[in-house]
# Entry
Amino acid sequence: MSRRVRCPIASTLDIVGDRWSLLIVRDILRGHHRFSDLRETVEGIPSSILSDRLKVLEREGIVARRPYSDRPPRSAYTLTGKGHALGVVVGALSSWGERYGEHDLSIVDNACGHGVSLVYHCETCNRAAPRNRVRLVES
Amino acid sequence: MSRRVRCPIASTLDIVGDRWSLLIVRDILRGHHRFSDLRETVEGIPSSILSDRLKVLEREGIVARRPYSDRPPRSAYTLTGKGHALGVVVGALSSWGERYGEHDLSIVDNACGHGVSLVYHCETCNRAAPRNRVRLVES
DNA sequence: AGGGGTAAGTTCAATTTCTGGACTGACCCC
DNA sequence: GGGGTCAGTCCAGAAATTGAACTTACCCCT
# Structure
């Protein structure tokens, strides 16, 4: 997979822009850390692909492999900070899917239990930026 | 491409979870509406793939094809509301790419010019929901 | 009227990637 | 010693992708 580095969107898609990687991230976020666990929860993923993607995600610093047994060799997969940050991408995909399809999963705020949406926010001004006011610009 | 409908994330990825679709959305968002335009701006996309993806995105109600000339046949591609909503996904990919790589594009609020980030927001309580407080739950 | 250029695709063979299933090795428990 | 689990690997067939060439239908210029 060759890299298209100029654009942060393209370069991100070069890493996780396939049918499976973000589902693996989703399930590690949901607390599934073992290979067999992920093979079951990531809908229909072949174990060869799971093995391959975990290696790529580890190489990219998105997941960390932590052996929890030497003999036999067993690993648990967790998200690094970089990997955890992909939660927003997963959240955005989920929001869109919830809005435009019928499903049985949603993202909620644990504190109030209500569904949440994703909005743009300007840290400097400390206010929301409406969707139609944001632009993609060269810096 | 078979469909994994249970989960909104999986079903969204079934539609736009490939190397090109979201780049096409990105560029239509940036104001590129014609086939030849997209072929140039979507980094290195083969025209056969562009043609194919535009058909899929049209079938999914994400882009609308509007002929602007009959003879010779010429079309412009625009985003539907559903397609425009994918801007948040593109924004999330961009934020992540900006944070974890070096690039020359960023998302800014047109009003103040500052870079913006994506945050979860509970409409009901009208307050932000911190990342670590949101969960993916069955509804 | 002929030549060159552009826009929007289509076609195709070669390559790459994905898929599903079988298989392996190293254990553990009974 | 038999059966089960876990974490993968291996492989052949199927499917998707790639790059390049080609097509159709104009327009402009001279």
User: Anything to note?
Assistant: The CA atoms of residues 27 and 41 of chain B lie 7 Å apart. The mean pLDDT of chain B is 88. Chain B has one domain: 8-133.
